[in-house]
Amino acid sequence: MATYVGALDLGTTSNRFILFDRGGNLVTSDQKEHHQIFPRPGWVEHDPLEIWQTTRDVIKGALSKSGISASDIIALGITNQRETTVMWDRHTGKPYCNAIVWQCTRTDEICRRLIATEGQDRIREKTGLPVATYFSGPKIRWILNEVPDARAAADRGDAMFGTIESWIIWWLTGGPQGGARITDVTNASRTMLMNLNTLDWDEDLLALLDIPRQILPIIVPSIDREIWGHTRADGPFGATIPVCGALGDQQAALVGQTCFSVGEAKNTYGTGCFLLLNTGTTPVLSRNGLLTTVGYQIRGEKPVFCLEGSIAVAGALVQWIRDNLGLIGSAPEIEALACSVPDNGGVYIVPAFSGLFAPYWRSDARGVITGLTRFVDKGHIARAVLEASAYQTRDIVEAMNQDSGVALKRLKVDGGMVQNKLLMQFQADILNVPVIRPTVIETTALGAAYAAGLAVGYWSNMEELRQNWSVDMVWNPRMSHADRENTYRKWQKAVERTFNWVD
């Protein structure tokens, strides 16, 4: 009888459930979007109960489509949008407020005060992260300060914090009836509360942000042979399945791309854009605006660390010109529109909708469109939208080359935008390295499946996973050096125009 590994991919805009076979092939899937809530400029929220409902829907949808029985699923892995913060009542499962999404900037004042009183170095040296609105710790502090009843519930021990994987694992394994209270080490490393050396919550940082330790989940390895819990027979699977693998979405893509050796890198083009470089079992602190984060950990082994460059807006910019400007009817249409012109016509778009992430970390920045003339039409705008993701990636690579001391030789890519051949060619051109798309581009979900499958012995080791990886397409650079540097210089000028917009 065939067996499969399940992966829940809990993304920023949608949830998916996918089954993979032993060869790492996608067998069946289902997907459902959830609402993006924007209560104020710069604020971004999700409804946690809607995320739990769509999770149940996609599990049932994928099984229904395929006719595969839940009893044929050997293990379940989870991957998730990172940093998004949920706080809920442990007795009822009711959230105290909407989830605060990783893109949200409401904690800017909290972060400014932290930087003014503590500086960046104290926190960066412990966590590998700068003080920024991006991370979960300031979001927890905001909820405790601003949401009625949250602080009192936290002090009583009734409140629970989790990122999205914690929230869903808790519900899948029982919720108020004994659900597992865990977070994996990759997600914990994105809270600004975990010490990279101890892989535990840091008491000094908890005191600094006035966060009670009792609301936090237990930190566990990403690939854990000690099963955290089983799905309940009365849950969406209708069967008991071991839950034993979890990774933040970008770390999951690293595992799905089998970047297991020092120096291997991948870039994921989704709502945002995230480039991770494997630096081995010793954390490398960045001096050039990157993040130091845990890539993955197998129980009983040292964690593998990464340097990461995080870009807030990539595919979200395509959604913006579709939904807000109406220049296209669907996201795939942007490639044809961009191909209607030979170049960007001098237009550059810097999508600093919520400030700029790596390597700038400027919460005062806001988006700009520069270089507009009467010559420019919607084709040039579309092309500038695509090029923005490639330019932002080069910003990251420049910083990564300096931190690591090793120049990038090739880039593995994944995510929804890698179907766009114009973007991939421009990415190779502006980086001057080959860009490689694998056969299976659902690498985020695949990484979560690999984590769970390794935990239960479905796959025996990392080398077996490497054998599953294969090349679908390669884009080689073909832009001249002079053109590459000239257009990148103009991009850098455009970035400077975003600074100091918010007082």
Question: What key phrases describe this protein's structure?
Answer:
34% helix; six-stranded mixed β-sheet; 21% strand; seven-stranded mixed β-sheet; 16 helices; alpha+beta; 23 strands; 503 residues
Structure description:
This protein has 503 residues and is of the alpha+beta class. The protein has helices at residues 48-66, 108-118, 121-127, 136-146, 150-156, 164-172, 185-188, 203-209, 249-256, 315-323, 333-338, 378-404, 421-431, 443-456, 462-468, 481-496, and strands at 4-10, 14-20, 26-33, 45-46, 73-80, 86-89, 99-100, 159-162, 182-184, 194-195, 200-201, 218-220, 229-230, 242-248, 265-269, 273-280, 291-296, 304-311, 348-350, 368-370, 411-414, 435-438, 471-475. A hairpin with a 4-residue loop joins β10 and β11. α9 crosses α14 (443-456) and α10 (315-323) packs antiparallel against α12 (378-404). The longest helix has 27 residues, at 378-404. The N and C termini lie far apart (63 Å).
